[in-house]
Amino acid sequence: MISADPGEGAHARRSTAVALAVSKGPDLVHVPEVVGRSEEAARQALTDARLTVGARTEDFSETIAAGQVMATTPQAGENLRAGRPVAYVVSKGRKPFELVDWAGKPLAEVTKQLDAAGINPTVTETFSTDVPKGSIISQDPTSGTLYRGDRIKLTVSKGPDLVTVPTIQGMSEAEARAALERAGFRVQVDRVLGGVFGTARATDPGGGSQAPRGSTVTLRVV
């Protein structure tokens, strides 16, 4: 009860009517739904609902366009006393991811960054004598801005293409050179004491070992 008429302490005859004013509780209003509205429209909706516009913050959103309200505290539908503040968050749009040149960087290091940003890499592998195994040779695109869900192509080194050095001992110089070149090597001849016999004696790296395709093998001829 808020009050009575006649008031407390007043004298009244028996059977005199007394008017009572009973409280209905606090004046509650609903927080309006303003997510997806422009900031100006959201502020007006809060004012129209007899609430106070509270603190404003910003954040990135993958679904709410930049400049629109993405959340309120308290949320829509909750009951507040009239005049209470409602804080709101304005979208800055999708979070950008600025590309850098990752040539020579380990794939594991790069994919960790991409995973955190929600970027999907497509990885292909190829041999390389210049880039260590497991590191990036090239990327597409090479620069610019990506967003969550976008894709990027990465070419990763498998290291050098190793092939077995043929065993050529006892072959003629011509036969040994041909065998090494068929295996994919460049040949440099070292004629021991002039190589008067024209016979292949050894190679460096040695026969049976592995060396990168396209590398130079020294053929020793006696």
Biggest pleated sheet? 3 strands, mixed
Percent of residues in helices: 10-25%
Report how far the terminal alpha carbons are from each other.
121 Å
How is the largest sheet built, in terms of strand order?
4-7-5
Report the C-alpha radius of gyration, rounded.
41 Å
Encode the helix/strand succession as letters.
EEEHEEEEEHEEEEEHEEEE
Number of strands: 17
Shape: rod-shaped
> Spans of 5+ residues with little confidence (pLDDT < 50)?
none
Strand and helix map with partners:
Layout: E1 3-5, E2 19-21, E3 28-30, H1 39-48, E4 52-59, E5 69-73, E6 79-81, E7 85-91, E8 97-98, H2 107-117, E9 120-126, E10 136-140, E11 145-146, E12 151-157, E13 162-164, H3 173-182, E14 186-191, E15 200-204, E16 210-212, E17 216-221
Parallel strand pairs: 4-7, 9-12, 14-17
Antiparallel strand pairs: 1-2, 3-6, 5-7, 8-11, 10-12, 13-16, 15-17
Describe, in plain words, how this protein is organized in 3D.
The structure is a single chain. By secondary structure, the chain is mainly β. It is built from 3 helices and 17 strands. The chain has helices at 39-48, 107-117, 173-182; strands at 3-5, 19-21, 28-30, 52-59, 69-73, 79-81, 85-91, 97-98, 120-126, 136-140, 145-146, 151-157, 162-164, 186-191, 200-204, 210-212, 216-221. The strands form 7 sheets. The chain has a 3-stranded mixed sheet with strand order 4-7-5. It has a 3-stranded mixed sheet with strand order 9-12-10, with helices on one face. It has a 3-stranded mixed sheet with strand order 14-17-15, with helices on one face. The radius of gyration is 41 Å and the shape is rod-shaped. The model has no long low-confidence stretch (mean pLDDT 92).
